[in-house]
Amino acid sequence: MTIFTLLFLIAIGVFIWQCGKKLSLIRLAKPEDRFDNLPLRLWDMLLYAFGQKRVVARPFGINHFVIFWSFVVLLIANGSFILEGLIPGFRLGEVLPPALYHPLVFAFDIVSLLALGAIILSFARRIIFKPDYLDSAYVHARSFEAFLILSFIGLLMVAYFGLNGVKIALGLEPSAFMPVSSVAAGILAATGDSLPAWGAFFWWLHALVLLAFICFLPMSKHMHILTAIPNCFFQNLGSTSTQRREEFAPGNRYGAEQVTDFTWKDLFDSFSCTECGRCQDACPANATGKSLNPRQMVHSLKTNLLANAAALKAGEPPRVPLIGAEGEGTNTEETIWACTTCGACLQACPVMIEHPSKLVAMRRYLVEMKAQFPEELLNLFENMEQRSNPWGIAPSERAKWTSLMEVKPFEAGKTEYLLYVGCAGSFDSRVKQVTLNLAAILDAAGVSWGILGKDEKCCGDSLRRLGNEYIFDRMAKENVAMFQERGVAKVITMCPHCFTTLKNDYRQFGIELEVIHHAELIQQLLASGRLKMNQQVSSLGKVIFHDSCYLGRHNDVYEAPRQVVATATGTAPVEFDRAGEESFCCGAGGGRMWMEEQSGTRINLNRVTEALAKNPDTICVACPYCMTMFEDGLKDKQAAQTKVRDIAEVVAEGILPVR
User: Fold this and answer.
1) Can you tell me whether residue 585 is helix, strand or coil?
2) CATH number of 2-233
3) Where are its TM segments located (predicted)?
């Protein structure tokens, strides 16, 4: 017992030292408040960490669910084992009454068997039927560490059954309540006088493996066992698309040049990553051969932090750059600019890691501190700054589309809704058709609406996601001031990017608007009877619906556009194989609308290919960016027989106002 006590104290000392060594580095990062709304945080922690909601969303996640809850249940068994080693004569069966002890050991026995089975399946998955996404450049499913951890857990289960089998054979444990261990007892009973020796062997096997696991845990990726649960507690409770605001002042540094420029939550994310590869599997950039791998990016933060720990603590420049040439712990500029901020990685992550905000932070450093960005963005930034639209068209042209119909300006106190047309709806010749159709729908339903005309400015979505926070900040302040001056309270948008920016981002600038996307509004008008179909639209043929990332994943609007299509056509739209929360990006988000794809295959072609596999006549969208990307993709695929329509165009074809 003295030897075990000494080894236990050493193991606990190593555990505390290693945890403190790593977690203390988080204090080097920027502060961030993640302690608001504690009841909701506790609920989310229970749902995502203990309930494993996202883990079990995939079939093999059930295996992890079994391992996780086996650990939770067996904490009691292992606690009892440690007490037996520290306190001579201690035995849980003598402390607890039989009515409690017998069900408990029965649970231990069954859970241990389930855990052993889950570990065997985990071995098989890595060796026999390994999915591609389990591997990345610096993380491998068949690594020594992965097999060592699985071996530790498996050996703990074997030692448990062996030790209790000996105890049952010696009459020290109730065989009736330990069915699996009783089988082991039957096998071990054949050893006769060797039973005590076998008991000592299994006891020390269990002890040494358990203590080795305690020592190794904080040194490995399995430190996520300690950090994943609190990471779920500290998750972002706001919109997943919104970025952190910056305060501009002389002498300030912007974005993330080195790892300590991130917030403590960003660094805590890096220790919480389970390296499961789900974000990698969901990422459209990774799927189309780009250098971006969201798992690898998070891994690079942890690697960079640990590699630079000594220098950062001493106040010295980091030795390993955060942004630079390819290497472990470093992100290339190509990687940083590849992100579409679609949020697929966020949606897939079981432990609520926030990937896009980290990439945007690095973009901010490149844009605001280095003026270093892809060449095609120079015109975009200049056009936005000078004329408040991506194309640099004169603001007086914003309302040119109104020449085809009578449109009233927004008047405070008289007009209920501001129709925020957006840049695409004002200037893009194809999207202007959507604007006209939406205007006709609003008039047909008797909605009180108006526009700002030439006074409307870009919302700044692309600027913020591209890292040009300075111009976005100025633009947002100007828009908020104008909305407040004009008395704007309710806003209709056609573009999900305008929708999320006005609804979520502008809250950081002191205004809370009631923003509704046209998909939601049209659905409400149809459901209430204010808008009725004159006829079902049959000219579209077979319709497939594509989810915009910024409408669906970032704002949870999935059903409204589908209901609109179903009402207008009389048939629910066909679904992509990847739909709803698992929808695949069109490739235009995160400012990628204004950039060329220099590596891999084009994201929009991947999505168009998926659509054409369903043989649709019409691809229905609810986003001008998606419309552009699909139409370009269909041209490249020479699939002119398939058309792209916005839901407003579909409804406008068959509307009848209520009289």
Assistant:
1) coil
2) 1.20.950
3) 66-87, 99-124, 144-163, 175-192, 198-217
